Amino acid sequence: MPKDLLYECFSGMAGDMHLAGMLELGVPFNHLVTELTKLGLDDEFRIEVEPRKKMGIAGTHVEVSLTNTTTAARGLPQIKDLISKSKLSPNTKARATSMFKLLADAEAKVHAIPVEKVHFHEVGAVDAIVDIVGAAICLEYLAPNRVYCSNVELGSGMVKCAHGLMPVPAPATALLLEGLPTTRGHVDGEATTPTGATILAHAVDHWSNPGTFKVSKTAYGVGTKDFRRPNVVRMSLGEVERGVETESNVCIECNIDDMTPEAYEPLSERLFSLGAKDVYHTPIVMKKSRPGTKLSVLTSTDLKDEIISCILEHSTTIGVREWPVSKSMLPRTFETVATSLGEVRVKVVTLPDGSRRWKVEHDDVSAIAKRVSRSYLIVRGEIDREVDAHIGGSDGH
To answer: Count of CB atoms within 10 A of residue 55's CB?
Structure first.
């Protein structure tokens, strides 16, 4: 049965709280320790797990203790090399490396230095390695189908960092959660740490609460600090009823009136190759009745800076607009269907009433029509009939 994961960060999120919640949710402690041993850092840390309560809420508490305080802080290249040379699974390596890249990018931007020069002093190099690689191990073990989270509490007051005292959130935390739903001021102190923000920025697919969520298990990761509300993060495994799904993205736009039309195609190709979810052009009339084109790009928050840099470098615009958008979508699956003319990919969507709608991938039909030297329209009609018979009970496309 597909599992969905829901984070409720009403008192924030920290790396140790995340590990604690994951263990209570069902990740075996021995599995976590065995996998972390593959990093070869056994002599540098110790993990202690115990039940603990916060304001009457019972959960699990994790403490990562450093056993070798003389170890120098590691930078991104050293940590990537450490993960790459370990015996962790390829998927776990990819997850952990992606999270460290997110954190390093944020720290580099805060300090205005190249990402390769970032050293993880403030989050503690070994602490960060255990929390982030541990998160990757746990997420890979639970393998949630979709991950949801709504508002993340950041806290209030001041936090001590390399810049001196700074208002909560820490600069890196603010960057990591930029454009995402957060709240402030409900607890005194730092509620969400850079490591906690990194895990959420990497793991969460949908920045909203699911409409209908059938919970199978609930866990509480207990933090160390005492707040005026329970310092716990609630994590739930269950199944979301697939109606209309929502997704948080960023829309980036600019108006262009001085670029040759042929330049739009390579620009769109570059944007899609970077990971843009949609790119489209709208004819508009600009100042002094000049005809122009509005370029619109839909992207995830973590790719925003790369997308903006690409637009500024590969178009003639001198500025862009951006704002967060919420996208509502029908749930979809992709199937490969064998027809008498060859295999084709089919996108199948489920409507709120449970009926289905489908569409054959255009490129597959075009390639088949070219290969058999027949009309695209005739080939399309034959393939559609066979796909309809295969999927059965659908409402067509």
So the answer is: 11
